[in-house]
Design goal:
3-stranded antiparallel beta sheet; alpha+beta; 89 residues; 2 helices
Length: 89
């Protein structure tokens, strides 16, 4: 198994028609709610495998907390966001 290859891809909205506008995590239950520009809402339950925290390595301090998870999600979302329109100078 290749750890850098996706195991599963879940289409959330049609690529050409709709664009994702909101992504919200539930802090109590392992679900993800996604809203698009047409008002449709999709609710996804996260796999138990995704909820497991990585094991700590000896001599290495692992960062924890919501701030770390938010930065990880921002990096991931920046890959799929459309670049802002360039303003004329």
């Amino acid at each position: 198994m290749n750890p850098f290859c996706a195991i599963c891809n879940q289409p959330v909205v049609a690529k050409k028609k709709n664009k994702i506008t909101h992504v919200q995590f539930n802090h109590v239950y392992p679900i993800l709610i996604i809203g698009d520009d047409r008002g449709h809402i999709t609710c996804l339950k996260l796999s138990p495998n995704l909820r497991k925290m990585p094991k700590e390595k000896k001599g290495q301090e692992v960062q924890k907390g919501p701030e770390v998870e938010i930065t990880k999600l921002d990096k991931l979302l920046n890959l799929v966001r459309e670049p802002a329109a360039k303003l004329p100078k």
